[in-house]
Design goal:
This protein folds into two domains: 60 residues, no CATH class; 433 residues, no CATH class. The chain is built from 25 helices and two strands. The chain has a two-stranded antiparallel sheet. Strand 1 and strand 2 form a beta hairpin. The N and C termini lie far apart (66 Å). The C terminus is likely disordered.
């Protein structure tokens, strides 16, 4: 084996550059090239040959096409195209107009923001852009501060995507999980198990619903006499306004329902073809997840094209939307390809095994899960990228857990996911933080500062939960502790602390 420090150099360069430059793609590229140079003993020709080999290996290896990788890339391309079709084709705006006519109280307005975030679960960035822009008129009408709108938008974007295997996050994370050779279950089953342990994401979603229902944490703006000022007061919309503000919700709802229904149906169907019994767990274990996701995305994209075409959008505009979607998703695909390649480099260098052996010697197994949550949170906060943290830490975290305590494999991976989402959620340089703020009409700094107390509530609850899991406490009791901690902290905030006095003084 290569000397330890030399073998560790590519990984160290990747981590340092990711934290310093905040450019995950550049960091991964430097890690790949430096690792290839070390493996090739700094021979330029051999380095080029090795890079070409591991690049080709991601698509064709040992005489067979790597259909999992190909299907994941196709699914991501289709999802990127679909999001742009919906955004640029007016489907999001139409849904906003339809929602605007049906909201009568400020509580309904806040819950409507949350509901719309759940409906556009397809992608975190798309959710931030769509929900913020659509709900700005709604928030102004009902005295909802832009900072509160940004909080509700951001808290129901990435945290939700991290829990759903049929969002754009699903294929990406499952591709990383598929690279863990000792994973005891299928990537889809692992994703679902990890989602059930993602205490931060679930706590964040729950807190956002409570904030929306009770109006906690943000004092309402003063609004005009013809607009609602008290919580729960009904509003009568004039006939003229009712005639003008209309919309068709199905332009957005039907493609999203098609994606969800087809993903579930095709996944179960592909598994049922391989199993004689009626055991759903066996169906999921044998299902062809990549092909099912690819076909579901294709069907939903075709439905989107058909509906927008019938609604009057011209063919040239649809082609432009599709090409724009492909361009928008290219960066994410580049990160995924580099992730696969650096995974091959790290494996050939023996880095994961080396790290796992060091962890077994120097890390406490009793603090492993909670420690992994904090480590990934710090890394995602510094880089502003949850996906970049996934790419680096899922393989390494899995190897460390497998070596130290195989029973903690899924909890550690859950901690990686949760910590990455938490760090990204709080980071002022995160794309979702910036887009949530700008689409909601507030400064990114104000959004980050006002969202931070709620994010810390969920993070403290998650930290307690991961430590209890590490100690072997039963999962139902862990969830009781997590929910109790979240509710207790929210009560303390609402009872003893008047949030955002500077913002409140502006009313």
């Amino acid at each position: 084996m290569l000397p330890s420090l030399l073998a560790m150099l590519p990984l160290l360069l990747t981590l340092i550059l990711a934290l310093w430059l905040r450019r995950t793609l550049i960091a991964l590229g430097v890690g790949i090239i430096s690792g290839a140079l070390i493996i090739a003993h700094f021979d330029i020709m051999q380095t080029g040959g090795y890079l070409a080999e591991i690049g080709i290996r991601q698509f064709y290896s040992q005489g067979a096409w790597q259909w999992w990788h190909l299907n994941v890339l196709l699914a991501m391309l289709l999802l990127g195209s679909m999001t742009q079709l919906l955004a640029r084709g007016g489907a999001v705006g139409q849904f906003g107009d339809w929602l605007y006519r049906r909201v009568r109280t400020d509580r309904q307005a806040r819950l409507g923001i949350v509901f719309l975030g759940w409906l556009v679960f397809i992608d975190g960035i798309f959710s931030c852009l769509a929900v913020g822009h659509v709900c700005q008129p709604l928030s102004q009408r009902y005295g909802i501060r832009n900072e509160q709108l940004a909080y509700l938008v951001d808290s129901n974007a990435s945290p939700l995507c991290a829990l759903l295997p049929f969002s754009s996050w699903g294929p990406y994370v499952m591709a990383l999980l598929a690279g863990i050779s000792f994973l005891p279950i299928s990537p889809l089953q692992a994703f679902i198990e990890i989602a059930l342990l993602n205490f931060y994401a679930i706590s964040t979603l729950g807190l956002s619903v409570l904030v929306a229902w009770f109006g906690l944490g943000f004092r309402p703006l003063n609004v005009g006499n013809n607009q609602p000022q008290k919580k729960g007061r009904a509003v009568t919309i004039s006939t003229e306004e009712d005639a003008v503000v209309r919309g068709n919700p199905w332009l957005l709802a039907l493609p999203m329902l098609t994606l969800l229904g087809a993903s579930v149906g095709l996944t179960l169907w592909s598994g049922a073809q391989q199993v004689a019994s009626w055991d759903l767990a066996e169906w999921l274990a044998k299902a062809d997840i990549g092909a099912s996701m690819r076909n579901a995305c294709l069907l939903a994209t075709l439905v989107t094209l058909a509906m927008l075409s019938f609604s009057g959008r011209r063919m040239g505009e649809l082609v432009g939307d599709l090409s724009h979607g492909v361009c928008m998703i290219t960066f994410a695909i580049a990160i995924l390809l580099c992730t696969w390649m650096i995974g091959a480099v790290i494996q050939d260098l023996g880095v994961a095994t080396l790290l796992a052996s060091w962890a077994k010697l120097y890390l406490s197994a009793q603090l492993l899960v909670a420690g992994m949550f904090l480590l990934c949170a710090l890394m995602a906060f510094a880089t502003g990228s949850s996906w970049g943290t996934f790419a680096i830490m899922i393989p390494i975290g899995g190897e460390i857990a497998y070596t130290m305590d195989v029973g903690l494999l899924l909890p550690v991976l859950g901690a990686v996911m949760a910590g990455s989402v938490f760090g990204d959620h709080c980071s002022p340089i995160s794309d979702t933080s910036v887009l949530s703020a700008t689409s909601s009409g507030c400064l990114p700094h104000d959004h980050v500062v006002t969202q931070l107390p709620f994010a810390l509530m969920a993070a403290c609850s998650a930290l307690i939960g991961f430590q209890l899991v590490n100690l072997g406490v039963a999962l139902p009791l862990v969830w009781l502790a997590v929910m109790g901690m979240s509710l207790g902290l929210l009560f303390l905030l609402s009872r003893f602390y008047a949030p955002w006095p500077k913002l409140a003084s502006q009313t």
